[in-house]
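[audit] Reproducing an earlier prediction to check determinism. Same input, same settings, fresh worker. If the tokens differ from the archived copy the diff job will pick it up downstream; this log only records the rerun itself.
[audit] input (790 residues):
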Amino acid sequence: MAQIRWFDEISTADLPQVGGKNASLGEMINGLTSAGITVPGGFATTADAFRSHLSETGLDHRISDRLADVDPEDVVALAAAGREIRRWIEETPLPDGLRAEITAAYVELGPEGTAAVAVRSSATAEDLPDASFAGQQETYLNVVGTDRVLAAVRSVFASLYNDRAIAYRVHRGFTHADVALSAGIQRMVRSDLGVSGVAFSIDTETGFPGVVFITASYGLGELLVQGAINPDEFTVSKTALAAGRPAVLGRHLGQKHRRMVYGADGSGVAVEDVPKELARSFSLTDEEVEKLAAMVVAIEDHYGRPMDVEWAKDGMTGQILVVQARPETVQSQSDAGVLERFHLRGRGPVITTGRAVGARIGTGTVRVVRSPDEMAKVTEGDILVADMTDPDWEPVMKRAAAIVTNRGGRTCHAAIIARELEIPAVVGTGDATTILADGAEVTVSCAEGETGFVYGGIVDYEVHRLQLDSMPEPPIKIMMNLANPERAFAFSRIPNHGVGLARLEFVINTAVGIHPRALLDYPDVPDDLRAAIDDRAAGYPDPQSFYVAKLTEAIGTIAAAFSPKPVIVRLSDFKSNEYAHLLGGERYEPIEENPMIGFRGASRYRDAGFRPAFDLECSAVRRVRDDMGFTNVEVMIPFVRTLGEAAEVVGILAENGLRRGDNGLKLIMMCEIPSNAILADRFLEHFDGFSIGSNDLTQFTLALDRDSGLVADLFNERDPAVKALISQAIASCKRNGKYIGICGQGPSDHLDFAQWLADEGIDSVSLNPDSILETWLMLSGQTPPDGTAG
């Protein structure tokens, strides 16, 4: 019986003989080449070959005896057993027949046995839909020469008995003797001169199925998988991709300060610094990102399930190839019918931040572990803090309540294992091992978006679980107020009828952080401001492109998350004191005694000095609607004081390509000034509806400053005068056949106010995400769910 199989001879049906990884390579070569997917060729040793090697040499009995009494919880004993077994296998020559077949096949890959290959492990129980053996066994890159290939095969065989692999099999219920290993010998891709990374066919944190998530860094992919670097990240809309439209929803520039390349003698690998100008550039173009995303979608369609794909871009040819694909095993296994949300009941001081993995919260005692030798110090419920993790750490990772690392991205080893263990991880902090004190109590929160926070002290939290398929339909539409686009995919799972208020101010403040006029004046700004702009706009062609791109990414992400439901985007409504807090803001903002009734909203849009900044906002909206195709985006104008101002702003929007009615565009006006309700019929001549801003409407109706603590006790959205104006606005919209909703805080805070609005005939209430379930069930006549304390 042949002891090797060429990749083009195998498929997923051969998993028992060549393992999940190699079977998948063969499946893609045979089934996806016509779809434009290229997989580097090669061959695999069989499971029979592995078992014969162990049985013929007596290694099978020695290994069984050595593992019989080892406690997988005893990391010291486990390490000693694994180390001894690996030495036995590495020192035992392969049988003559197997050695001859490997040698002959390797010679076919290149002239006189000089081909550079990767020697990868492929276990017969790995890469199954319900189990991920991520990094359990070893991979050897840029192996050149017959002797080195044979030695690498022995080392791959030995890696079946790594400490983490032994422990993992025990914990997942696999018998050691039932798992065999196949070695895959695959042509190398020259990504040492290019780029490599990992892609998922769903959002890794929420399971949102409408996107492809891609990580990328320079050089060979091993550093990225290990978590040794913080990679670039890209999110791509499947809907826009299928329509042939611009599809990149999000970009995050990673540090990428190191890369793995070929060794100096042409074999093996080395690690070197990445030139600064290269690290500050995105490693893939949008065109390459979209091409790769299309390949991932094709792979997902072929397998019929969410997939985890490793890819590499050849630096010599520019070709993107797939080097591995396995089923995604975390989000795809979760119960989509149950919504689980973690919510902090307070906040402690922020000690450090990084990329959030797993929308969960964990509390415990910090254990700073600097090497695998110190892992025994981690006990059940501790917070594991490390520079990075690799598969050697897995025996203790399952003890941790949370993981925090200096390095790594959302597809690194720590992230993959944390998701599988259902614990939060904050990766890529840069300083966790130095700033977190061993023995300190902390709270690790990954329930607040893409940024993960480590707070000082133990902060109480609660967990809400809701059976989504049992939700009744309420008498009115319940929409969502959403500021942070990073939460869009997660919040889209909450029952909703769309987004009634998406605030651009949050994006400008957090993702940009610079006054838009400073970006327009660049480079003619002070040196310190120019340096700050250079840093924040790194990776983009110019500061103006950066500003438009960040707004486009935010709007597009929310639109994609909730499509085809409506998403009402309110254009910027910063007041002068708020704009002044942005970098460079003090150069452009007036000092006003009462900014609340000053230079804000529509008045800014028609101002000659601010108009160019407003044009950039309109450009972002137009890109999302017209280029990306998310016509579910509607535009909302805040703080329109007069009828003349309403007409002027609608005209300015039209000049910017946002003409009411074109491509189905709806224009909504905030109803937040008494004049808006008093002259509602006249204002509605210019707009398709109102969204009531009850916060401002209350303060201007009652003549009180809602920022002043001296009169705060009088602030009440349910005051009869405020209600009278709201009733008047609702009646006017009904009379004119126009949309009427509310996006102010009132119905989020007061269930009786939400009920009153429903009774008045309002079309929708837009609520804060944490108020939706309670209000939804109350309006539907049911009891809200209780939270479970943490």
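[audit] rerun output stored. Observation attached for the diff report: Residues 127-135 have pLDDT under 50 and may be disordered.
[audit] end
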